[in-house]
Amino acid sequence: MTAKAVKYDDDDAFYAANMADCDVGLNSTVGLPEIIKELRQATNEILIRQARKFGECAVKVTVGSKPPPAKVRGYATFLSLIKRSSLSELEMKLGFKSGALQSHGAYVFQVDGLALKTDNVAPRGNTDWSAGLTPRDLYTLSKMSGAAVGYHRDYPSATQPILQFVILAEVPFIGAPRFVMAGEVV
């Protein structure tokens, strides 16, 4: 397991952090059975093919209170899955804490699909699995650490989950990011 229990600074609670989101090497398939390697390769190829499909694109959504970065990395999804969503709907679909986007707006970045490669993306299930970790992962992590471990408070399980994947290395985006304010939709 590439997850670890991290203690909050302000109390004794723990949340699960997926270390594979920060360390590309932890996504390696070296030493895994051939079928798992083939499955990962095929899954990554599907994600990339979808991101490059005409009329579709991969998107990264961030809280609007921070200035937009020069490049993006981290969790992403597809525009078709969030199109016409309000900020509260984005929170429910992407697993942001209620009010996080509604209070600050959101930047929506159109990821450059040509920059996505099979070695810089990894599947992460649906957004109801915060950090790409399943409830079974949380149970195992709790047993290993001897304390209850949950999802991060700011990134709870999505209530309207959609497909997500992680971009492991910074990639460019196309054009200026779109800023979505309260009352607007993606």
What's this entry about, in short?
Helices cover 25% and strands 26% of the residues.
Kindly, what is the distance between the CA atoms of the first and last residues, rounded to a whole number of angstroms? Answer: 35 Å
- Adjacency order of strands in the biggest sheet: 6-8-4-3-5-9
Strand content range: 25-35%
β-strand number = 9
Structural class: alpha+beta
Helix content: 25-40%
Assign an overall shape. Answer: globular
**H/E element order:** EEHEEHHHEEHEEE
Residue-averaged pLDDT, rounded? 94
Number of helices: 5
How can the largest sheet be summarized?
A: 6 strands, antiparallel
Number of domains as seen in the coordinates: 1
Radius of gyration: 17 Å
Q: Pick out the low-confidence regions.
A: none
Task: Record keyword descriptors for this entry.
5 helices; 186 residues; 3-stranded mixed beta sheet; single chain
Characterize the structure shown:
The chain is of the alpha+beta class and 186 residues long. The protein has one domain (3-180). The protein is built from 5 helices and 9 strands; from the N terminus they run ββαββαααββαβββ. The chain has helices spanning 34-52, 79-82, 87-94, 100-104, 135-145; strands at 3-7, 14-18, 58-63, 72-78, 106-110, 121-126, 149-150, 163-171, 178-180. Strands 6-8-4-3-5-9 form a 6-stranded antiparallel β-sheet. A 3-stranded mixed β-sheet has the order 1-2-7, covered by helices on one side. The longest helix has 19 residues, at 34-52. It is globular. The mean pLDDT is 94.
